[in-house]
Amino acid sequence: MAYSDYNFKKLKKDFGIKNRVISLFEKFKETEIDEWLKNYLKISSIINIETEKAKSEAIIFPILIYLKEKNKNFITLYSGSNLRADTKKGLNGECDFIISKDTKSFEINYPIMQIVEAKNNNIQIGIPQCAAQMLGARIYNKQNEKKLDTIYGCVTTGYEWRFLKLENDIIYIDERKYYLIELGELLSVFQHIINITIKN
Questions:
Q1: Among candidates 196, 144, 143, which has minimal Cα distance to 167?
Q2: CB contact at 8 A, 183 and 64
Q3: Which of 36, 95, 97, 98 is nearest to 69 (CA)?
Q4: Which pLDDT does position 1 carry in this prediction?
Q5: How far apart are the first and last CA of the chain?
Q6: What are the C-alpha distances in Å from 99 to residues 26, 114, 191?
Q7: Region 3-198: CATH code
Q8: pLDDT value, residue 92
């Protein structure tokens, strides 16, 4: 069993994790976007992007690299890494992307945010998987004696982005979706999460 096998019914049964749909964030001022990212995404928009791999390479990864560059002294980005939290309970498996609070570790250390690529352009399917990874991140941190009360997550098709927050035993799902055409505001949400997390 892996993170992708989880649904909310099983998360509640095995771990007592409930879920709520709420408004997670206030409206943020749009972040200024560097020209290289604007140009990259503009060029990407003229090619045929249909597969998950293409979306990852052409849209998702460049945005996350941009965030890494803006926060290079505070976060590390992992792509396709395995996060082993509790293999007996199935909290194990490859994660699309992990943002970690530690910048100097070779291995995953102190994950603060999980990012899941939605399969078949369906964000709904990716939400329980992301929730399971967020729970895995919390357990992983605890095993490594890293205390973090809140773990964040995001599920994306590349064009649509939806955020989650794990606090206590509740997964909060943002009622709002952000879109690629709102890139400045989307980046401001990511930056807000990084800011409030690295201060802990």
A1: 196
A2: no
A3: 36
A4: 65
A5: 32
A6: 22, 7, 12
A7: 3.90.1570
A8: 87
